[in-house]
């Protein structure tokens, strides 16, 4: 497996098109995917804050678990840039390359904010009739 990752500009910030397609690309799929997006984004920046606290407290295993969980839940939303950014940070933590962690954490926070903004925009434009799009 190569350590080389594609440049972030070539990756997606957020896209549930594939998920919608696999679920039937109809109103029912839209309702389910809208709920998935709302649920995945509901914690807002809390996971990033929790990871930052764990890092400050030198609880590296906890920080890695938080980031891994975030990567898994948000990665299902087609957030390829966030996945790549999180993976770099997780690897730096696991390898105890602690001098890299602050910059990688800032990058991941920026990517996560972009995902939350994009998800909120998607919800505003695609929420099913009668569904409530809550801000991310």
Top keywords for this entry?
single chain, 136 residues, mainly alpha, elongated, disordered N terminus, disordered C terminus
Detailed description of the structure:
The protein is built from six helices and no strands. With 136 residues, it is mainly alpha-helical. It is elongated. The protein starts with 16 loop residues before the first helix and ends in a 10-residue tail after the last helix.
Condensed summary:
The chain is mostly helical. The chain has six helices and no strands. It has helices at residues 17-22, 27-41, 46-56, 60-75, 80-94, 101-126.
N-to-C span:
34 Å
Overall pLDDT score: 87
Estimated share of beta-strand residues: under 5%
SSE succession: HHHHHH
- Give the biggest sheet: none
> How many alpha or pi helices?
6
Q: How many strands in all?
A: 0
Q: What Rg, in angstroms, do the CA atoms define?
A: 16 Å
Sequence stretches where pLDDT stays below 50 over 5 or more residues: 1-10, 131-136
Global morphology: elongated
Helix percentage: 55-70%
Q: Please tell me the total number of domains.
A: 1
Structural class: mainly alpha
Pfam families: Hpt
Modified residues (Phosphohistidine): 68
Organism: Duganella violaceipulchra
Keywords: Phosphoprotein
Write the layout of secondary structure elements.
Elements: H1 17-22, H2 27-41, H3 46-56, H4 60-75, H5 80-94, H6 101-126
Helix pairs in contact: 2-6, 3-4, 4-5, 5-6
């Amino acid at each position: 497996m190569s350590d080389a990752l594609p440049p972030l500009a070539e990756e997606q910030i957020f896209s549930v098109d594939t998920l919608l397609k696999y679920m039937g690309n109809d109103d029912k799929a839209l309702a389910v995917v809208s709920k998935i997006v709302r649920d995945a984004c509901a914690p807002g920046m809390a996971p990033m804050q929790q990871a930052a606290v764990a890092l400050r407290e030198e609880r590296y295993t906890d920080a890695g678990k938080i980031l891994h969980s975030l990567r898994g839940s948000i990665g299902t939303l087609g957030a390829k840039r966030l996945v790549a950014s999180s993976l770099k940070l997780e690897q730096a933590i696991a390898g105890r390359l602690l001098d890299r962690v602050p910059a990688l954490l800032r990058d991941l926070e920026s990517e996560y904010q972009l995902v939350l903004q994009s998800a909120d925009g998607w919800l505003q434009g695609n929420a099913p009739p009668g569904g409530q799009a809550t801000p991310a």
